[in-house]
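hi! just following up on the protien thing from before. the input was this:
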Amino acid sequence: MADLMTEWAARVAETELSAALPRRWAHTQGVAERAAGIRRLLGKDAGLLTAAATLHDVGYAPRLAVTGFHPLDGARFLRDEHKADERLVRLVANHSFALLEAEERGLRDELAAEFPLMEEPLLVDALVYCDMTTTPDGGRTSARERIAEIISRYGADSVVGRFIRRAAPEILASVRRTEAALAAQPR
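and the predicted 3d structure came back as:
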């Protein structure tokens, strides 16, 4: 079942991102690889993590960009067009502290009402870890470097710049918790 979800997620993400946004597609592939690399941490939810990592940025696809806020647009697409698993949709909607960016965009109530936060800290942290330790081109990086890169790319005073500065302590804490959980895993 999990492998089917992962395969389906890869097909959907490739269809929506590879031609239209090749750099975003490269990032997506890197995040998915990162998720596959930490599968042992999630047990039965490993496939869900990999699917969410693969689909986390699908809302950037031009044909899906309704609100211009990719977590919300992506989650709505997955829910409405694909009838995707609720947990998967909620992970995509709320990835990497999206609620804070939604607040900056005046979409917090909308996002929170449609896609409530998940009460699964390890799964949520693992997706943050995968996203925030992957460069825009799909390579590996540290969370601090990724945050700095995002601020540099968007500008400190942009919506994304303000959001990422506010979210930075939470992002870094998520990454630390995931790294600690990985270090505690038997080899």
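The mean pLDDT is 96.
The radius of gyration is 15 Å.
cheers
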